[in-house]
Amino acid sequence: MTQREILRALPFWQRALRLEDWRIEARTAPAREMSHNGDECEGLCFIHQEEMFAEILLRRGATEETLVHEMLHVVFEGDSGLRAYDALYERGLNRVAQALIGLRSSSPIP
Ligand SMILES: [Zn+2]
Predict the structure, then answer these.
(1) Which of 19, 33, 54, 58 has the highest CB neighbour number within 10 Å of its CB?
(2) How many Å lie between the centroid of ligand 1 and the Cα of residue 88?
(3) Rounded CA separation 103/84 (Å)
(4) In angstroms, what is the span from residue 108 Cα to ligand 1's centroid?
(5) What element of type H or E holds 56?
(6) Domain map of the chain by residue range?
(7) How many A from CA of 84 to the centre of ligand 1?
(8) pLDDT one-digit tens code per residue, 42-98
């Protein structure tokens, strides 16, 4: 996604995922910023629970599915303070993100 596409998609997904009470910023980031515990990743989500603020970084060329995946981290972890990054959980988020993108494809963002 380009930065422009991100800014267009973000409010749509914020509404769809009922995250309107959160302040969410998302931007593309250079590859050097895109690692977590030494692993390279497509997207990162930094949640500041008390401020209800989340910052999402997407690797250049990341898909909208990655944006939705990172936003799902806010859905599941934002209020609980839980930080879970195991492989099964990540796979589950991928499946939900894929399903949502699939559902959305019949009614694209205007
Ligand atoms: Zn994830």
Answers:
(1) 58
(2) 10
(3) 26
(4) 24
(5) strand 53-59
(6) 3-104
(7) 9
(8) 999 999 999 999 999 999 899 999 999 999 999 999 988 777 678 899 999 999 999
